[in-house]
Amino acid sequence: MQTGKVHVALVASPGMGHLIPVLELGKRLVSHHGFSVTIFVVTMDASLSRSQLLKVSEITDDFLEVVLLPAVDISARVDKTIGILRQMAMMVHEALPSLQSAILAMEVQPIALIVDMFATEAFVVAEEFMMLKYVFVTTNAWFLALTVHGPNLDKEVDRDDHINNQKPIHIPGCEPVRFVDCYEQFLRRNKVYFRMGTEISTADGILVNTFYDLEPRTLAALHDTRKVGLAPKAPVYPIGPLVRPIEQSLRGEVLSWLDMQPKESVLYVSFGSGGTLSAKQTIELALGLENSQQRFIWVVRPPVENDSAATVFKSNGVYNDFRDYLPEGFLNRTCKNGLVVPKWAPQTEILSHPSIGGFLSHCGWNSSLESIVNGVPMIVWPLYAEQKMNATVLAEHIGVATRSKLLAPQGVVGRDAIAAMIRKIMVDKEGEAIRAKVKMLKSCAVKALSNGGTSYNALATVAEECTIGMQ
Ligand code: UDP
């Protein structure tokens, strides 16, 4: 790209949850800061074509180039004992020679490399080409705080205290992380995770997909120049919320159905790009939705097979249709009030629809931000990874969500508890404060991203550093 513009390169590690915010960051650097951007995508899926990528993010700018690095195949070296973090690190590692060659072949070498938090292995390439190196944390600041604090804690605190005695983890200046919420890789003392924490701290800057009004306490702690025991040494830039924009042209059965529903009357239920429930839990959720007497859209996936209740419905554990695992008569009884969608739905378009009044979510961070920017209150139902921390941020630190005390996978949340949570966020007086808070944060998010807003300014500082680096 020979443009006379400041050129930066971004690296997205495998997974749509990482790619979506990285693409949005690239688009913002182009449209708001006049940069030219190349996004390198590490993928293990050779069939993930460029046209599919364009579809997810409607890239139309001449100054934004998306380069799919040759697909890496680690399947021969991976068995069930190798966790997802290690797999991710292996894939990024394998992709480094291609990244190196691609940068070397560029007419204008990028001034900076911005990698998502699972791709810090690529910092060696930035160092080789003497580029500025930034990390983009695509989740929240509290998780960043735990991640960068982890390596310190590993040395200082007796393992028994927080793992065996279930004591909370105290991160200086931040809310403590309860044992039940803690990221599972932290509890397993995963070396890859702790190394990630150390590497993040070596960056020239850390960009986070959050904004001031969302996490004021944690961001203040991360900004504390005295750094009382809390790494990182690098400055932290809250630049969010960056979410995938709606595709205006996208219509279809779900959105047409929503057009016919009253304002804020529909609950949207989804567990992200891959979350599943047990067979028992699926039934309780169905009956909870029915008992709540609220309208709903439910993105349904077949229950996990190793659940004993699965055999009640289908002895071989294979489901051909959702009639095989939803309670008998459920679809007929709820067809006037609800829509059951198999596997995938146009989420950002649904959440921005005026008929949506609530979101029952696994609280992946992209989904959480998509809910907030649309002013939609949530029921948080975390399943894995850092989702339990996200749930606590949303329900307890910010107050835009409610949650069940009986969290999966510890037990099955019953239909009555589910119906009560749904009524709370959708209609009951008890949920008024939650509904008001999320609407307030919706306008704070707009302000943060507008010219002169906190997130706008934070990214402008990074852009300025890159511009100075060019001179
Ligand atoms: N998504 C979607 N339709 C679905 C499920 C998910 O469009 O049926 C999108 C959603 O809008 C979000 C992303 O996929 O942008 C999921 O990311 P998140 O961080 O919420 O969770 P993950 O799937 O990575 O656990």
Automatic annotation (TrEMBL):
* Name this protein carries in UniProt: Glycosyltransferase
Which InterPro entries did the record assign?
UDP_glucos_trans, UDP_glycos_trans_CS
Enzyme Commission code: 2.4.1.-
Which terms in the Gene Ontology molecular function aspect does this entry carry? coniferyl-alcohol glucosyltransferase activity
Any Pfam family matching the protein: UDPGT
Q: Which family, according to the similarity comment?
A: Belongs to the UDP-glycosyltransferase family.
Domain of life of the organism in this record? Eukaryota
Q: Which keywords accompany this UniProt record?
A: Glycosyltransferase, Transferase
